[in-house]
Task: inverse folding
């Protein structure tokens, strides 16, 4: 159901989309109205697969900058636009490519196998051996060469969770997502007291104290299957609040409660929320702001992204 926006704006978006032969890809954290007009809504892994397979001429990526960049890495000849060029990511920012390059040079004797979480810049992807998302991180780490130490960048929480799952020790870059870091042991314990009937489902970007309180830790996409397939009918969802729209739409009849932080009833990503229906309309109309990447850098980054897609089949 499409709600709360003038039908002419929605109709214009849909008309321009057809006219441009464009596809609208939207992350699970986008506002409900954007999710409703998108051709595909999903997690970082699903969106990368869609971006790799699309036959559209134009990709409109409603997410954050590194997501649009990943789509461009996979589609150098297509036009890739995002509604707001300033939709960044604190996690991606925590690992600048020049700092990673310096670190790898300083520790060249280690011969690190670098696994980069997809929430990073094209420059970091170009330095990595393989990319992962929260949906395939366990599989990617399990496939890493056994004789080389792993450097996992940039998310220390996802990295620690993958080590717990696989038993594979890794050196972790000390980055984090500011949204998931807002959840605390206290805030989730409070939610459990207030909703004793609900299961707690948390994203692996959450700190360990929060993950330990969760009944399930998984990527945003896997949250759909988990909540649909378990018998429980109420869930506290410990990730960005946009996820609740998809859960409510795709798992009707169950109750979804946003995970609270110490200060708020839910957590919102200020970068994801920069995108609006008006900006989506404008970027379809003007085909800007466009994602452009230096070709040498793009080709290097493509290798590690393609390797991930290969390993995810
Ligand atoms: P997933 O889409 O892989 O669940 O990750 C969530 C996220 O933080 C994206 O920025
Ligand atoms: Fe980055 Fe966190 Fe926002 Fe995802 S939710 S885009 S990881 S800041």
Result:
């Amino acid at each position: 159901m499409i709600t709360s926006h003038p039908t002419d704006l929605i109709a214009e978006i849909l008309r321009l989309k057809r006219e441009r032969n464009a596809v609208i890809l939207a992350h699970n954290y986008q506002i409900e109205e954007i999710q409703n007009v998108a051709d595909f809504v999903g997690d970082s892994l699903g969106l990368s697969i869609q971006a790799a397979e699309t036959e559209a001429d134009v990709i409109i990526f409603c997410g954050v900058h590194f997501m649009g960049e990943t789509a461009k890495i996979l589609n150098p000849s297509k036009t890739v636009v995002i509604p707001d060029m300033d939709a960044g990511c604190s996690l991606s920012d925590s690992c600048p490519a020049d700092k990673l390059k310096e670190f790898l040079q300083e520790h060249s004797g280690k011969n690190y196998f670098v696994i980069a979480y997809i929430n990073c810049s094209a420059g970091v992807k170009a330095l990595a051996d393989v990319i992962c998302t929260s949906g395939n991180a366990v599989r990617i780490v399990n496939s890493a060469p056994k004789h080389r130490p792993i450097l996992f960048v940039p998310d220390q929480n996802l990295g620690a969770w993958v080590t717990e799952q696989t038993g594979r020790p890794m050196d972790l870059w000390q980055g984090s997502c500011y949204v998931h870091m807002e959840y605390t042991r206290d805030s989730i314990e409070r939610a459990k007291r207030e909703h004793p009937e609900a299961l707690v489902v948390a994203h692996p970007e959450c700190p360990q104290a929060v993950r330990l309180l969760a009944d399930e830790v998984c990527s945003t996409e896997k949250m759909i299957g988990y909540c649909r397939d378990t018998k429980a009918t109420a869930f506290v969802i410990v990730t960005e609040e946009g996820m609740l729209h998809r859960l409510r739409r795709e798992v009707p009849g169950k109750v979804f409660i946003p995970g609270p932080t110490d200060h708020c009833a839910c957590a919102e990503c200020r970068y994801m929320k920069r995108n609006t229906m008006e900006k989506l309309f404008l970027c379809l109309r003007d085909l800007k702001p466009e994602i452009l990447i230096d070709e040498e850098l793009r080709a290097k980054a493509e290798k590690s992204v393609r390797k991930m897609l290969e390993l995810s089949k």
